[in-house]
Amino acid sequence: MDPEIERLRKKVENYPSPSAYNRLAELLRDSKDYDGVKSVCTRCIREFKRNGTAYIILAEVYINQGNHSDATSLLEDAIKQDPRSAEAFCMLASAHEASGATQDAIACLHKALDLKPGDAEIQERISKVSTSAPSAPAPAGRTDSGTIDMTGMSLSMSSGAASAPAAASEPIAFDAQPRTSAPVNAPAPAPQAKAANPLSALLDEAGVIGVVVADDQGRVVSSEQMADGQETVFAALAHEVSTGCEEALNHLQQAPLANWSVTTPSGLLMAFRRNAELTLLVQAKSDCKIAMIELRARQALIDLGGA
Fold first, then answer.
1. Which domain holds residue 211?
2. What does the alpha-carbon distance between residue 283 and residue 208 come to, in Å, rounded to a whole number?
3. Fewer CB within 10 Å, N or C, the chain?
4. 169, 220 in Cβ contact below 8 A?
5. Cβ neighbourhood burial of 217 (10 Å; 0-12, 13-18, 19+)
6. Among 87, 111, 132, where does a domain finish?
7. Which of 113, 71, 65 is nearest to 96 (CA)?
8. How far apart are CA 166 and CA 39, in angstroms?
9. C-alpha angle 275-280-283 in degrees, rounded to nearest 5
10. d(Cα 223, Cα 217) in Å, to the nearest integer?
11. Which residues have C-beta within 8 Å of that of residue 215, sequence separation ≥ 6?
12. Contact indicator for 21, 44 with CB cutoff of 8 Å
């Protein structure tokens, strides 16, 4: 038995600390004592819930053993404890990649890159995983039909503050080809295939109530499952928050606003951006899995052309 392992075992028994647990788990992992790793990491997580390293070491063991489900669940808990852990997102990407969920892996890596801008290793992983991923559906085109000009309209979060348009706004059309007129006596053309809705996976996530895609002027580009008129309020709010923060962030020499959220008695409103053109807003229940919603939202932005 490695004397250092024995020393650390005694230390965590008498004077437990995250660093001692982490070092002991690493030594046990390197010596291939995987049962020992599970025992040490499980105890560490119970005593030091925010010690992200223990989650990552244990998840790595699960992945190597092919237990992708437990690894994914464990890493989602780690991200819930520390949403700014790039290492947890990178390991979650490994779990998704190992299980064949390459699009989820790419979304995790993009989130890690948001947390560590310019990181060469993460960028290389994104490139590598992307080349092995199946082709994503072509981004849906944007349309000005049914958008709402918020210029001069005051914003209020009370019900009905923003008036709905005279005609209900239409969501983005996902037809793969435009429709064409056919001669009167011509046989009916075969139905055109439709591209997958980039918002489908996000809308299917547990706890999601509705989704709005807004442009950089606070206008609704598309909305799904939103109450009448509510999408215009959310789009305008996204514009106000983005423009209001831009000057302060520039002054502080900080990166542009990537995401923000508002907590209300009825749940959450989360906003995600990857450039200045599109903002994706998600209305969700309070008990939703925020980390998974964020992954789905960022992948939807990529598919919409907001990468």
1. 200-304
2. 6
3. N
4. yes
5. middle
6. 132
7. 71
8. 62
9. 155
10. 16
11. 142, 147, 221, 235, 277, 278, 279
12. yes
Distance separating alpha carbons of residues 97 and 106, to the nearest angstrom: 9
Buried b (16+ CB within 10 A) or exposed e, 113-131: bbbbeebeebeebbeebee
Q: 21 CB contacts (<8 Å, ≥6 apart)?
A: 12, 40, 41, 43, 44, 47, 48, 51, 54
For 137-166, give the DSSP string. Answer: PPPPPP--TT----TTPPP--STT-SPPPS
Q: Which residues are paired to 283 by β-bridges?
A: 210, 269
Please choose, from the candidates 90, 16, 22, the residue with its C-alpha nearest in 3D space to the C-alpha of residue 54. Answer: 22
- Whether residue 26 is found in the same domain as residue 119: yes
Global pTM reads: 0.49
Q: Provide the residue-wise pLDDT of the chain in tens; the chain has 307 residues.
A: 689 999 999 999 999 999 999 999 999 999 999 999 999 999 999 999 999 999 999 999 999 999 999 999 999 999 998 888 999 999 999 999 999 999 899 999 999 999 898 899 999 999 998 887 655 443 333 333 333 333 333 333 322 333 333 333 333 333 333 334 444 454 555 555 445 678 888 888 888 999 998 887 888 888 888 887 788 888 888 878 877 777 676 667 676 667 788 887 778 888 888 666 788 889 998 888 888 888 888 888 887 774 4
**CATH number, position 74:** 1.25.40.10
268 DSSP assignment: E
Query: Do 215 and 151 touch, CB atoms closer than 8 A?
Result: no
Q: Quick count: other Cβ atoms within 10 Å of Cβ 75?
A: 31
Indicate whether 225 and 127 sit together in one domain.
no
Q: Are 140 and 172 in contact (CB under 8 A)?
A: yes
The angle at the Cα of 286, spanning 283 to 288, to the nearest 5 degrees, equals 80
Could you tell me which residues come within 8 angstroms of residue 229 by beta carbon, excluding any fewer than 6 positions away? 160, 162, 163, 164
